[in-house]
Amino acid sequence: MMTAHFTCKNCASGIHVYPEVSAKIIKCEVCSHEQDVLFTQENVDGLLVNCPGCSRRDFYSQKDFNRKIGVIFFIVAALISTLMLWAGLSPQWYLSTFIVLYAADFFLFRKLKPIAICYKCDAIFRDVKNIEQIPGFDHEMHDRIVYSDHDFQGKPLDH
Ligand SMILES: [Zn+2]
Ligand SMILES: [Zn+2]
């Protein structure tokens, strides 16, 4: 089932919801701020055409990569290497730690499912059925939507 993750316009906390046609308002659990949402039957079926948060049709897809995990990995590898160095092991031992780290990172990154993000309101959608039709991030589109309030109406720029 598709999940939607909105950002509270008042306190910027994440608000996690499942699409439901009857849900017209979502409430922030942190600050109790309420904001409007409009889910369509398509959203309930896992298709992303209109953004329930801002009703725009412009999205981009990206890998659901958790930067924090990457950083933790790197710190752990650095610690292990330091310990190996301190224990007097030869350089190929602690270099191998980074090779393992790189492989793990690569594997995890490839395993992650893509997510769709709304250019206008930054809502994040997971398990989107039509994710293949959503192109990757486009800088020009982002700038024109965010800074000039341009509406592409779901038609990505051709380059
Ligand atoms: Zn809030
Ligand atoms: Zn939106």
In short:
The protein is of the alpha+beta class and 159 residues long. It is 35% helix and 18% strand.
How is this fold's topology laid out?
Elements: E1 3-7, E2 14-17, E3 25-27, E4 34-36, H1 41-44, E5 59-63, H2 67-86, H3 91-111, E6 114-118, E7 124-126, H4 139-148
Antiparallel strand pairs: 1-2, 1-7, 3-4, 5-6, 6-7
Helix pairs in contact: 2-3
The structure holds zinc ion (2 copies).
Shape: elongated
Number of helices: 4
Binned strand content: 15-25%
Q: Given the helix and strand composition, which structural class is it?
A: alpha+beta
Question: Which kinds of small molecule does this entry bind, naming each only once?
Answer: zinc ion
Number of strands: 7
> Order of strands across the widest beta sheet?
2-1-7-6-5
Q: Can you give a write-up of this model?
A:
The protein has 2 domains: 3-63 and 114-148, no CATH class; 67-111. The protein has 4 helices and 7 strands; from the N terminus they run ββββαβααββα. Helix 2 packs antiparallel against helix 3. The longest helix is centred in the middle third of the chain and has 21 residues, at 91-111. The model has no long low-confidence stretch (mean pLDDT 89). It has 159 residues and is α+β, with helices and mostly antiparallel strands. Strand 6 and strand 7 (124-126) form a beta hairpin. The strands form 2 sheets. The chain has a 5-stranded antiparallel beta sheet, with no helix packed on it. A two-stranded antiparallel ribbon has the order 3-4. One zinc ion is lined by residues 8, 10-11, 13, 28, 30-31, 33.
